[in-house]
Design brief:
Helices cover 73% and strands 0% of the residues.
């Protein structure tokens, strides 16, 4: 005597067995199909978000370890500040020049909190720079700060930049 309970019918196979999930889907009405479609799309979106967060947290954990290595090995605050700025900028900036610009701004801001001297601020920012566009613009700004002649605002904008890109805006 076959068991007639719905739970047992679900597991039965062969003739007279319950239809498969695919047969149920194709025989259902348009509203049910729409519900299945929405559930499928939301499931894909949810899994995508979870995977993205997993990889983001893994990257942050790696950056935390890198920062702690610099923090423990360094004797100077400026090195720790530059490392923190570089690692945090890598999360929000995709291009190396964007990361470098963020580091330049962070180091200059930290130095401005300690000293109001423009040459010291620029010197600290220049030491944190590695990319040629920033090094060149900081060197030119240093020449202007140390010199007796003050350049016109148009000349500063032309040589140091005043655009949207990091290399064209951070040195000014």
């Amino acid at each position: 005597m076959p068991l007639a309970h719905p739970l047992f019918l679900f597991f039965q196979t062969g003739a007279g067995a319950e239809p498969s999930i695919f047969e149920l889907f194709w025989s259902s009405g348009p509203i049910a199909k729409l519900v299945f479609l929405v559930l499928g799309v939301m499931s894909i979106v949810t899994w995508s978000i979870m995977l993205a967060k997993f990889f983001q947290l893994r990257k942050i954990a790696t950056q935390t370890r890198e920062f702690m290595e610099v923090f423990r090995a360094s004797q100077r605050f400026s090195e720790v500040n530059a490392a923190a700025a570089r690692l945090s900028a890598q999360i929000t900036h995709a291009h190396p020049l964007g990361v470098e610009g963020a580091v330049l701004i962070a180091v200059a801001t930290a130095q401005a909190l300690v000293s109001k001297d423009g040459e010291q601020i620029l010197c600290a920012a220049t030491q944190a720079c590695e990319q040629a566009p920033f090094v060149e613009r900081c060197a030119l700004a240093r020449v202007w700060l140390e010199g007796d002649v003050q350049p016109a605002p148009e000349e500063v904008a032309h040589h140091l930049g005043n655009g949207i890109a990091a290399a064209e805006s951070c040195a000014t």
